[in-house]
Write the structure tokens for this entry.
Amino acid sequence: MPVERRPERLERVERPRTERAERPQRRLDLPQTRRRRPLPEYDPDAFGRLSERIARFLGTGRFIVWMTFVILLWVFWNISAPTELRWDEYPFIFLTLVLSLQASYAAPLILLAQNRQADRDRVNLEQDRARNDRSIADTEYLTREIAALRMGLGEVATRDWIRSELQDVMKELERQHSAESDQRDR
């Protein structure tokens, strides 16, 4: 009896092209794309630079003058303007809210700027220490080299020593010459 051949489950079933286009194939030879995060992404370095600029501005006299001008204008307007045009009556609750909001943002920005400055100072300090260590090592090396040269120079004939030796030899020769001439004369 002939055996009926059934397609095995492992055989590939051809699908229409429309199904393939709908479902993307996962490729193992390419890196996965990043998943989108629900939170917005930002560049921490750019944010840090912005916070430093804001903190630098908040620490100037110009900011204090402008802030004083705005507050005085706010108070003057809300006291002397017609009632329909006032937006913040006498206890100035809205002004207090605005100043509190400004302070609540200014404090963390100033702290962030200080942290970044502390990080820069720490890096500069480490570089200064490394530079000082190299300078100390170079100085110690040069000191040892100079000491070795001095010790070596103690054994080397100097110009003054050679001159004094030659003078001693000249005097000895003169004595010998005068002694010989004295012996000949006798």
About this structure: Helices lie at 17-22, 44-58, 61-80, 93-154, 159-185. The radius of gyration is 47 Å. The chain has five helices and no strands. Residues 93-154 form the longest helix (62 residues).
